[in-house]
Each structure stands twice: as structure tokens, then as C-alpha cells.
Write a structure and sequence with these properties.
Layout (H helix, E strand, L loop, with lengths): L6 H9 L18 H13 L3 E8 L2 E7 L8 E6 L18 E2 L2 E3 L7 H13 L10 E6 L8 H10 L5 E5 L6 E5 L1 E10 L14 H20 L11 E9 L9 E10 L1 H5 L2 H12 L7 E8 L2 E2 L5 H8 L4 E4 L5 H6 L4 E3 L14 E3 H16 L3
Parallel strand pairs: 3-6, 3-7, 7-15, 8-14
Antiparallel strand pairs: 1-2, 2-6, 4-5, 5-16, 8-13, 9-11, 9-12, 10-11
Helix pairs in contact: 1-3, 3-10, 5-7
The structure holds zinc ion (ZN).
């Protein structure tokens, strides 16, 4: 139960409820989003919302609050995520929400409990006004943003068409991020047959099946990626981030895996994305039967037309239009047809850090910003 008397106290209470994404932090305070969703839900109820929970994964719900007075109106959605990254390596206490020299410290202070607190406090301050606005207002706390985005995928599929515009909560310094690349991780693997290292002729070395092709494959990919340049986001990229194979010097390795990180433009995504591109290049190189390809992670690119009403309103209260090198839940919502942007207080370089914080002045600026945004519908 939240009993905050200010946005600062609200953010402190949110930080004190650990909600580390269990997928991204095996064994480390992997407490999931359930308690956070419950706290946010009860706060939304205290602001007059009708609250529902949708369990996306066991014990890991999205929390949705719909405010009264919205019937027959266009729909505005606030959509921060409730999970955080792991706390490994942090040099400040992740969950005490200590205030030092005007900054609130803790995991999620910036990404993205700060944005969530600013959104919730603006809603709290305007709870009498919201039913009379020229828009329906809803809030969703999305689970699972930091690993695979199951929360926004689930929500977008079920609810995207109920809304006309979504503001996803991320620390953007209150700029409007309307475009970002998607990210796809592909694992390429080769299989062989292991045997003792003293008799390599009896085995089939999986590393030697893979490695002769890596440099040519990357070069071919880079050439083809240049065909999918986006005027705003630039060229898609590929990076070879990981290579694994073998278990011991005296064993011929039976498997080898490389992992490629692709940053996709909307054009590449629309053309089938990097899995299709890799498959066609492996065919051309005549090694498709040697190398297996598996998608181990993907998030979609974001592009929301700057002409949509919601972006015009954000600009009218001083937010400038920008793009981002990172990805977020806005891509999932936009993919389902809901125009979405990311816009929130704080700076992305404070996110995921060992001493994550949000300045109280930034938090309060965020509250005022979201208040002005809501009041643009008055
Ligand atoms: Zn985030």
C-alpha cells in the first residue's frame, strides 16, 4: 500500500519494492513484478481508476488502470515498465532509495520507476479533472521490458486498438523519441563429432566448420544491410558479439556457436529482417546445410509519424522530437498499430548504472510535464 505525500516519496516507495527482471538476473533478487504491480494498482485505484491485472507469465502480471469518463473518446495510454535490470555490481543500496544532495538513488530510479512516479503523480494531482478531459486516460505497468518484452507483446495484442496514442516511460530527458532501431540476436551453430584430441582424424571439428566462413559472412551482411538505410535512423548494423566452442584442449569440439547482434531499421524489418537476410547469404555461400540459425532475442523497430496528434501535443508543451540508439516497449505497441513514443524525465546514461539515480528536480519537472500534457486535452 502506497502512502506517499509527494512524487519524491512515491518514487522512494517504488524503489523500495524490488522488481528485478528474473530473466535478466538469474539468482539475484529476482523478485519479479507482482508486488510492484499490486502497489501500482492500489495507487491507481486511489486515483479513481478501475484496475485489472493480466498475468503474462506466472506471478508476473501487467497492471492496467482505466479512468472514468472515457467512454466514446479517443484513448491516451501511459505505459512505463515495472521491471528493472539486475542489481549486480551496484555501489549504492539498490532498494533503500536514499536521497543524497537532491538525488534519489536506487535500482530503477531512472529506468523507469522515476518516469512511472512522475506519470502517476501527475495523474494523482489531476484525478478530479481526468474524467472531464477530451480523451480517455489509461495507464499500464508493463512487465518484462528488460528481457524479451513479453509484457508489451501481450498488451499490444490484446489492447492496442483501444488507444490512439501511447507515451512509454523511459528516461529521455523529456524529449520525444519517435523512432529507434529494433534489435535481433541470432545464434549460428555448427555441429560436429567429438573424440580424443590425440586422434583428431576420428572426429569432426565443429569449430573448423564455422570459423572459415565468419569473416566473409560478416562482410556479406554489411554489404546487404546498406540496402536498408533509414533516412532518420541510418543504416542497420551487425556485430559479432560472442563465439563459443569446445570444452577442453584435448577434446575435438562437437559444437560451435556464434552470436550476431543486429540493429534493424524499419525497412529491414519489413523485408523479413536479419533472419531472412542471413538465410539467403548462407544459401549463396553454399553453407546453409552446415550452419543452423536460431533467433534468441528480438525487439522491433519504432517509427511513429511526427504528424500524429499526440506528438504535436508533446511538442506544444516544449518537447523536442528525437531518435534513440536503444529500444523499448514503444516498438511493440507501434508494431500493433498504436502510435507510440518514449518520453520521460531523467537521462538514459543514468539507467542500468552501478549508482543509478534520478534528480528530484528532474522528477518534479516530469510531473509538471505530464500534467501539462494531460491538460492539453482539457
Ligand atoms: Zn527502461
Amino acid at each position: 500500500m502506497i502512502s506517499a505525500h509527494s512524487a519524491t516519496e512515491l518514487l522512494q516507495e517504488l524503489i523500495r519494492i524490488p522488481s528485478v527482471n528474473p530473466d535478466g538476473a538469474p539468482g539475484q533478487n529476482a523478485t519479479g513484478e507482482k508486488e510492484m504491480a499490486g502497489a501500482v494498482g492500489s495507487f491507481l485505484e486511489s486515483c479513481g481508476a478501475v484496475v485489472t491485472y493480466e498475468e503474462v507469465l506466472p506471478q508476473r502480471p501487467n497492471v492496467i488502470g482505466r479512468f472514468p469518463g472515457g467512454h466514446g473518446k479517443s484513448g491516451l495510454l501511459f505505459a512505463p515498465h515495472t521491471d528493472t535490470v539486475s542489481v549486480r555490481g551496484m555501489t549504492v543500496d539498490p532498494f533503500t532509495a536514499e536521497i543524497i544532495e537532491g538525488r534519489i538513488y536506487g535500482r530503477g530510479a531512472s529506468d523507469t520507476k522515476g518516469t512511472m512516479a512522475a506519470m502517476l503523480w501527475a495523474i494523482f494531482e489531476l484525478k478530479e479533472t481526468i474524467p472531464n478531459l477530451n480523451t480517455a486516460v489509461a495507464f499500464v505497468g508493463l512487465m518484462g521490458e528488460e528481457a524479451g518484452q513479453p509484457g508489451s507483446k501481450h498488451f499490444a495484442k490484446a489492447h492496442a486498438e483501444e488507444f490512439d496514442f501511447a507515451v512509454v516511460g523511459e528516461p529521455t530527458n523529456l524529449e520525444t523519441v519517435h523512432a529507434h532501431k529494433g534489435c535481433v540476436w541470432l545464434e549460428l551453430s555448427s555441429e560436429g563429432r567429438s573424440c580424443h584430441g590425440s586422434t583428431p582424424e576420428l572426429g569432426d571439428n565443429a569449430i573448423l566448420k564455422m570459423t572459415p566462413f565468419i569473416a566473409d559472412l560478416i562482410k556479406a551482411l554489411e554489404n546487404r544491410l546498406a540496402e536498408f538505410v533509414d533516412p532518420v535512423l541510418g543504416s542497420p548494423t551487425v556485430s559479432l558479439g560472442k563465439i563459443e566452442g569446445g570444452t577442453s584442449p584435448n577434446i575435438v569440439p562437437s559444437s560451435c556457436r556464434i552470436t550476431l547482434d543486429f540493429r534493424e531499421t524499419p525497412q529491414l524489418h519489413a523485408a523479413g529482417g536479419s533472419p531472412a537476410l542471413v538465410a539467403s547469404i548462407l544459401e549463396e555461400m553454399k553453407i546453409a546445410d552446415l550452419i543452423a540459425v536460431r533467433v534468441i532475442g528480438d525487439s522491433v523497430p519504432l517509427y511513429t509519424d511526427p504528424a500524429v496528434d499526440g506528438i504535436k501535443r508533446l511538442q506544444s508543451i516544449g518537447s523536442s522530437l528525437t531518435t534513440a540508439p536503444w529500444f523499448c516497449d514503444a516498438g511493440r505497441l507501434a508494431e500493433a498499430g498504436l502510435p507510440a513514443v518514449a518520453c520521460g524525465p531523467g537521462k538514459i546514461d543514468q539507467a542500468h548504472t552501478k549508482d543509478e539515480f534520478l534528480a528530484i528536480s528532474d522528477l518534479n519537472a516530469g510531473v509538471e510535464f505530464y500534467r501539462q500534457f494531460l491538460l492539453s486535452f482539457a
